[in-house]
Each structure stands twice: as C-alpha cells, then as structure tokens.
Amino acid sequence: MTASTPSLFGDDDDALKPVPAPPLATPHEPRPDPKAVTSAKAAEKPAPAPAPSGNYDASAIEVLEGLEPVRMRPGMYIGGTDERALHHLFAEVLDNSMDEAVAGHAKSIEVSLDADGFLTVKDDGRGMPVDPHPKHPGKSALEVIMTVLHAGGKFSGKAYETSGGLHGVGASVVNALSERLEVTVWRDGFEHRQNFERGKPTGPLQQVAPSRKKGTQVRFLPDPQIFGDGAIFKPARLYRMARSKAYLFRGVQIKWSCDPSRIHDQTPPEATFHFPNGLADFLAERVKTTATVTESAFSGRIERQGEAGAVEWAVTWTPQGFGEADGFMQSYCNTVPTPEGGTHEAGFRAALTKGLKAYGELAGEKRAGIITADDVIANAGALISVFIRNPEFQGQTKERLSSSDAQRLVENALRDPFDHWLTASPKAARSLLDFVIDRAEERLKRRKDKEVSRASATRKLRLPGKLADCSGAAVDGAELFLVEGDSAGGSAKQARDRKTQAILPLRGKILNVASASGDKLMGNKELADLMLALGVQPGNKYREEDLRYERIVIMTDADVDGAHIASLLITFFYRTVPELVRGGKLFLAMPPLYRISHGGKSLYARDDAHKDELLATEFKNKKPEIGRFKGLGEMMPAQLKETTMDPSKRTMARVVLPRDESSVEDLVETLMGRKPELRFRFIQENAEFAAADVDI
Ligand SMILES: Nc1ncnc2c1ncn2[C@@H]1O[C@H](COP(=O)(O)OP(=O)(O)OP(=O)(O)O)[C@@H](O)[C@H]1O
Ligand SMILES: [Mg+2]
Ligand SMILES: [Mg+2]
C-alpha cells in the first residue's frame, strides 16, 4: 500500500500564489502592503458559521469504522484523488498479484480494461483464502481482506517472503474507493465470488461452480464520487505500468488487453510482456538509439545466499544524455517503484564509485582520485531493483526505501561483479574511466569559473559616487530614497537610518523621459547612476533578484515642481523597468507642507486640507504659528526623519499600475505629452493626492 503523507496545511498554498493586482487606476493610488492583501484575501472567504457552543465533549470524538476513513480521507491512503491517485488503485491490485508471482505461486497475470470502464486484474496464484476467518465470526478471509484495514498475509513472512505489500491495506482501500468491485477466487475445487459496492458487500461469498483452476481476479470500477465524474483509466498509463512490472520479475508474464473503444492514442489493444533478461531488457529498451560509452551495459542479478532476497541492476553511460535528462536512476523494492530513491540507490552509487576509483588506481591513473559519486552517476542510465524481507519505507509512503541493510546488500552484491566487468574488458573500462574523469574535471572547472565570475562581478559593481548606500548587506528592508537636489540630499543623509536607508540625490531637472529615446535615456548621467544604484538591467533583462533594495522611494518637495519630478521619475520607471513597478517596489514619500505649533504642541499637515482640518480640531480657538516648508532641504533632519522617513511614523504611497495597463500610456501621454494644460491638471491632482493618508 502506497500512501502519501497527508497535507497538513490543506489548501493553504493559495496563500503562496502571487497576489492579483488590486484594481487601482492611477500611479498615486496606494496599494496595500502585500501582507495586508493576504489577510484581506482571507477575510474575503465566507466567515465561518458561529461555532456551536458548549458540546465539545466525548460525543464530539468520532471513531471511524471499517472503511469509512478511506472514503473520508482518500489522500491519506492513495495520496489524493487526482489521476495519479486513480491509477494507484491499479498499482495496488497489480502489486498483490505480483507478490503472488514473486512468491513463486503465480506465473501469469492478465490486465484488461473493458468498454464499461471496469479494470480487471487476474492471476493464477494460490487465490485469496476463502475459509471462515477465526477472529471475524461469520466472515470469510476474503471478506476480511476486502473490508478490514490492516488485514493481510504479509506481516509474518510465512506466506510471502519478499513482498511489495506490507500494510494489509491495499486491497481494502481499492474496494472502499470503487463504486463496484467483484472478487473471484478459484481454489479448493471451486470458483468463489463476492461483490461489493463502495466497500460494502452486496451479498455473501458464494461458491459459483466447481472448478479446478486456481487464482484471484479483482474487477473494479473507481467511484466517481471520489475521483470525479470524468475520471477514467488511461490505457497508455496502465500499459506502461503493466510493462514495467514485467521487467522487474522475469518469472512472470503479463497479458494486456484493452477495449479498442477506450484507446485514443497509439497504445496497443493487446500485448504480452515477458522479459527473460529483466532489467537488462528494460535498459536496452530505454537506450535503444542512444550511443553509449561502453559497448555493453553492466548488468546482473545476485540472489542472496541461504536467505530470501535478491539484487538486480543494469547501468550504462552516454555522452549525449537520455532525452531531457543527462542521466536517470530508477529504483524498485519488491517491484514497487521508489521514485525518491533510498538506501538501495545509495548502495548502488557507492559500489560503482568505489569500484571505478579502485580500478583507476590499479591502472595507474592518478586522476581517478578526483572522481565523486555524482561524476559516476550524472550521465548514467541506471536501474536497480532489490527484493528484501520486511522492507522499510520512509514515513507513510513507499516512495523512498529506508531499510539500512539494503545499502549493504546492494554494495556487497555489486562489488565483485563490477570488478570482473571492468577487468574482463580493459578497453571498455578505459573508456568509462576516461569519460568519468572528464566529467570530474569539467565539474572542477565549472566550480573555478563560478568563483572567478563571482569575484569579477563584485569588482564590476561600481556604485555611483553620489550614492550614500546603506551599511547593511541585506536587501530585505533596504530602501533607496531618490531625492531632489543636493541640499535635500544632505538633510536626508542626516535623517536616515544608515543601516537600511540609502540616499541618491538627483540633480537638476531630469530629462523629459517619456519622449526621449532609449539612447538618450541611458546617456543621461542621473538616470544611468540610478540604474547602477538599483543594480538592475532595463527592459526584459530586469531580474527582481538583482534589485539591491526592497523599496525605492521617490522623495520630492511637496510642491508642484516636486510633483512634476516625481511624475517624471514614475514615467522613467514605467518605461525602463516596468516589472519593478508591477512588483510594487516603487513608492512616493509624503513630506508635510506645513508645521503648525502652539504652546508646546506642533503638528504637521500634508496639504491645505489637512492644515484646515488641524486648525479646526487640534488648534480650535487658538492662534497657532503656521510655517510652510519650501522644500525638504529646509527641514531639520530630525523633522524630516520624523515626518517622512522613519518607517514607524511616516506615511508613503505605493505606485500601482492600473489593471488595464493600456491606460498607462494615456496617463504617460497626459503627464508628459504635448498638452500642457493636461499636464498641469495632473500635477495638481497628484500633489493633492500624494497627501492621502496611506500607511504602509
Ligand atoms: N492476488 C492475490 N492472491 C493471493 N492473496 C492475495 C491477493 N491479493 C491480496 N491477497 C491477500 O490479501 C492480503 C491483503 O492485501 P492488501 O493489498 O490489502 O494488503 P498487503 O498486500 O498485505 O499490504 P499493502 O497494504 O502494503 O498492499 C494480502 O496480504 C494477501 O494475503
Ligand atoms: Mg497489497
Ligand atoms: Mg486489507
């Protein structure tokens, strides 16, 4: 029984998906902090019904009976309810027949998919026991197998030695998740049958007729209530699964058939799989047209002496890779695929690496010393299959083998055969050794190149002289303030938190960028410096991970000129690094315009409206002193810090693109274009808007 670890977090991965752009239409409308968006999203979900109060007692603790838990939580048993999980039902039934074959009782397995969607797996093994079960009065062993979790014959090793089954769960899980399921058993001179619906018997086990055959047949239709209405078995997938099983045990023949009406691709409607050379055949099939380093693959099979257990393997190397990948390793334990690898793979890698290094040393090849397991395996196509008693798989799944003796078993099994293989054909051994040493040397060279390029990248990164960078190295939390003019730059430098806040003063009026060409843009020293400070490349070469700051803050005077410069810069960002803007990295600082004080109290107002409001409330019936800041440069550093820069006190607006970005062009045209009256209006609005109270 293979099961996936249940997801502890339910469907929460939604929270990790990018947050959709909020429907804001102008660059000056604030966008909420991403964190706030996440929680806002959570808040959108329908509020949970008020919890029923007062009866959380023993009656609230349910014990699921029989197969109920399987239908309630299929993911726990088959890793989900998707197509992969659906096909896993087939794996469970097929594994049971394979166990019967590996135990030496079945020689032939038949798999067929019928026109009505039922899948049948039939073997000629001993047949499930049908006699009454001693511990379940009135029930046959067959019924217990099909309806009781953890009922199985593979716990003690008496009936099966090296089986893929070990939990006693598989057959009952398939039953629970099938709309209908019929089991037919031939044994003890009779054909027996019992039918089930969604895990429940629809009648008793019946002796249908005398028969001298033996074996078991399970025919079932997965339940659409579990897998969805459209869920059906895919012939191609069943075909592949059946065929690879046959490669894994040479003592079995698997017959495949499928109703032609169900096939919509190249899958053959009938086939017989029997591979007397096991994994060697499997590998030959995979590398059919691929040129390999050695003429023949290294393959073999070793039975454990005196005990149950076996190791089988096949491996070959190729310079050009196998399709998409440079190499592959597929591993199996008791014919169950272990896609996550495990101890058998570790033993395999160790055996090949040690063997090849030892051979290199013997051949006087000094460079063999640099070989690592990765060099040996990276370009190999490898299959490894072990048969062991009481396999241990990690956690709830059978995807990774963790039996520690499997590593020793494989390593010991391969040592001598690999040695013999190498010494028996010195030409092949030499080719392999050279090939692997080349890989090792390439690896070392790559590492060196990487070190060199990292060093030169650091050297190349010259920052503009005017930039007062932050002293902390972390990008998280780092902010770059773009300020207008050197005097404001001076105040900002004193007001900043050196660790996380950097200041770049931009001198004079920057180019009217919207109408400038790319060359002109980059030719502008101020803007070139800005890009250098940001660390990013323009256009589609922009990579967020290059960005040296978490936030870029445009900090200009709270007047019409300042608003103009801010809009020029926003336009520049939108034209040059739109992804930066889309990523919500660009902000507008909101310095105050007035300082209002009376007695010991002083407050700042962002604009006229705010000033009037304060005068009507905080300073009601008083005659306070009102000062107007002409520019940031006029503010005391402490004031600038308190009102505009200190993250715990300030207000900033995030620049957000409208959802319909085509209107950005209009906006830019409005801002920068040829109609001065439009421009003036925007600037006024922007100046006003920038005063909006937005906390981030
Ligand atoms: N085709 C079969 N032939 C003979 N006996 C079978 C067959 N299928 C199932 N059984 C018996 O039914 C038992 C229960 O099968 P089930 O698949 O539920 O569990 P399992 O194979 O023991 O373990 P796992 O849950 O890991 O598959 C098996 O242990 C075996 O004794
Ligand atoms: Mg089983
Ligand atoms: Mg069972």
Automatic annotation (TrEMBL):
Q: Where in this chain does the record put each Toprim domain? A: 478-592
What biological-process terms (Gene Ontology) are attached?
A: chromosome segregation; DNA topological change
Q: Where is this region: Disordered?
A: 1-56
EC class of the enzyme, as a word: isomerase
Q: Which residues bind ATP?
A: 56, 96, 123, 165-171, 398
Q: Which UniProt keywords apply?
A: ATP-binding, DNA-binding, Isomerase, Magnesium, Metal-binding, Nucleotide-binding, Topoisomerase
Report the CDD domains cross-referenced here. Answer: HATPase_GyrB-like, TopoII_Trans_DNA_gyrase
Task: Give the reactions, separated by semicolons, that this protein catalyses.
Answer: ATP-dependent breakage, passage and rejoining of double-stranded DNA
**Which InterPro entries does UniProt cross-reference here?**
DNA_gyrase_B_C, HATPase_C_sf, HATPase_dom, Ribosomal_Su5_D2-typ_SF, Ribsml_uS5_D2-typ_fold_subgr, Topo_IIA, Topo_IIA-like_dom_sf, Topo_IIA_B
Q: Which Gene3D superfamilies match?
A: 3.30.230.10, 3.40.50.670, Histidine kinase-like ATPase, C-terminal domain
Highest taxon in the source lineage:
Bacteria
Q: Where is this site: Interaction with DNA?
A: 512, 564, 679
Cofactor needs: Mg(2+)
Any one GO CC term of the record: chromosome
SUPFAM superfamilies in the record? ATPase domain of HSP90 chaperone/DNA topoisomerase II/histidine kinase, Ribosomal protein S5 domain 2-like, Type II DNA topoisomerase
EC code(s) of this entry = 5.6.2.2
Spell out the PROSITE patterns in the cross-references.
TOPOISOMERASE_II (PS00177), TOPRIM (PS50880)
Q: Which family does it belong to?
A: Belongs to the type II topoisomerase family. ParE type 1 subfamily.
How does it associate, per the subunit comment? Heterotetramer composed of ParC and ParE.
Describe its function. Topoisomerase IV is essential for chromosome segregation. It relaxes supercoiled DNA. Performs the decatenation events required during the replication of a circular DNA molecule.
Protein name (record) = DNA topoisomerase 4 subunit B
Q: Which gene encodes it?
A: parE
